[in-house]
From TrEMBL:
<feature type="domain" description="DUF58">
    <location>
        <begin position="56"/>
        <end position="241"/>
    </location>
</feature>
<dbReference type="Pfam" id="PF01882">
    <property type="entry name" value="DUF58"/>
</dbReference>
<dbReference type="InterPro" id="IPR002881">
    <property type="entry name" value="DUF58"/>
</dbReference>
<protein>
    <submittedName>
        <fullName>DUF58 domain-containing protein</fullName>
    </submittedName>
</protein>
Length: 320
């Protein structure tokens, strides 16, 4: 009998990421959004959607957008003329996925790595469904790998395979603190790869964003749509009520009792998290880049569905 595979809530498997295609419903990263979506407000975000290609110049018809009237052509012909555009079918999507050693952490439902991989897989399946090319930069502490955008299921499968392979190595990786270096290196590559009117989605540990990342995202966002999916754990937002115990020594042999109330430790943890999230959000508003904060206490799909204003998954009918 085959041994059971890893729990996908801890280590995202290829099979779990493939199944994400059935959860990629009820929301999207396109520019047409429900009013409750974080992407709906133009003041908070600048989502272009696919580009528009000029198709023809024709006589104005009732109901046409008056902003598309070509006044020069109208004066020349003596009749009101309007420009007609068609939505371009192709908008490349570039996905950046943070699978550093620090993301192999979670205190409730899943690890950060699992939530990041799931969010990336959902975006990949959505982009493929809309007919866009899908590429990715999957990065860790030991470097990154690039997958240039292609429009095929095989391209999405290669991205998912890269996510699963890098995640599978995390349990054996030595623990490391969160660092900004891997994310900044991935953003530098994204800046070199992305052209104009791409969708660049960054799914990363909230603690990895720093000023350099803010500046890199700003440069990319000048000509592209950028969405930041920031992942955190409940323990990073607020420590549990005291007292609680854990192995806090270097050798892991001695049990100590820690009191979050002593020295204001609990308040400091909560304040540090709020400052970091507020800094990222402020950068997003300044750059007109949406920031979607999600956590490890739940799968990524329902969280993104709520943030993007999508309807809940339809209930199955009961058999009679």
């Amino acid at each position: 009998m085959d041994a059971p595979g890893p729990d996908p809530r801890l280590v995202p498997t290829l099979g779990a990421l493939i199944r994400c295609q059935f959860q990629a419903r009820g929301f999207s990263f396109l520019h047409r959004q429900p009013v409750t979506s974080l992407l709906a407000g133009r003041r908070a975000s600048r989502i272009r959607g696919r580009g528009l290609a000029f198709e023809e110049l024709r006589a104005y018809r009732p109901g046409d957008d008056v902003r598309q009237i070509d006044w020069r052509a109208s004066a020349r012909t003596g009749r009101t003329q309007t420009r007609v555009f068609t939505e371009e079918r192709d908008r490349p999507t570039l996905l950046l996925a943070d699978l550093t050693a620090a993301t192999f952490f979670g205190s409730v439902h899943a690890t950060k790595a699992a939530v990041i991989a799931e969010a990336t897989a959902l975006a990949a399946w959505l982009s493929l469904r809309f007919g866009d090319r899908v590429g990715a930069i999957v990065f860790g502490d030991d470097g990154l790998e690039e997958h240039h955008p292609q429009r095929s299921r095989a391209a999405v499968m290669r991205v998912l395979g890269a996510l699963a392979a890098r995640a599978a190595a995390l349990p054996a990786a030595p623990p490391r603190p969160v660092g900004a270096g891997p994310l900044n290196a991935a953003l530098a590559r994204a800046e070199a790869i992305a052209g104009h009117d791409w969708l660049v989605l960054v799914a990363a540990d909230l603690q990895a964003f720093d000023l350099a990342a803010d500046q890199a995202i700003g440069r990319i966002a000048r000509h592209n749509d950028v969405i930041a999916v920031t992942v955190s754990d409940p323990l990073e937002r607020a420590l549990p009520a005291p007292p609680w115990q854990g192995r806090a020594t270097a050798d892991g042999a001695r049990v100590v009792v820690l009191d979050p109330g002593r020295g204001g430790l609990g308040a400091k943890v909560r304040a540090a998290h709020e400052r970091r999230l507020e800094a990222v959000r402020r950068g997003g508003i300044r750059l007109e880049t949406p920031v979607l904060p999600i956590g490890t206490e739940e799968d990524a799909a329902p969280q993104l569905r709520r943030l993007l204003g999508g309807a809940a998954a339809p209930k199955r009918r009961r058999s009679t």
